[in-house]
Amino acid sequence: MTRLGERIRSMDEGIGRVNQIIPEMPATETRLCRLLLIVGDRLQRDLEAIVTPYRINHSEFTTLMILYSRPDGSSTPGELCELATQGATNMTRIANALLKRGLITRQSGATDRRQVIIRITAAGRRFAQKVLPPMFPRIAEAFSGFNVGERNELRRLLGKLAANLDDLDSGVTP
Fold first, then answer.
1. What is the C-alpha radius of gyration for the chain, rounded to an integer number of angstroms?
2. For residue 104, what are the β-bridge partners?
3. Which of 41, 119, 124, 135 has its CA 20 to 30 A from that of 168?
4. Which residue ranges in the chain fall short of pLDDT 50?
5. In what order do the strands lie in the sheet with 116-120?
6. What pLDDT is recorded for position 119?
7. Measured between alpha carbons, how far is 174 from 164 in angstroms, rounded to an integer?
8. 8 Å CB contact between 89 and 59
């Protein structure tokens, strides 16, 4: 597997060549976008390597963690689709897989029987408490070269980028 540094150098060279051909290309912004995608892909692969031995995939794990982090441990399929960035069909598959393992329940809403409520079970909470701690050292080590101020600045800048992307979606110029 190619190391990230090599991928980034290759990316920089490629963007530089394209920028010579198309000078109006926003090269710095393009580099930042590609860098975020490359690093995000690596983080996702690291996560998948940790959760795969537990026979759960990334989208199932993300959905379970959303429920685990909720005060009442519940959500609707629509909310989970939004938060986990999944389509309705895939969310049905995810819920079925988690339900089959006893990690969630699926029931009708108390006030509206047409509404479906998905709730994490005690087994789902135990599962989360078992799977999460092995991730902590890897996450901490990934950011070990950053001081507290740099971590906060990175979070602030990524939040600012997220807000700009939301503005683009709503037609507002950032």
1. 20
2. 120
3. 41
4. none
5. 74-75, 116-120, 104-108
6. 97
7. 5
8. no
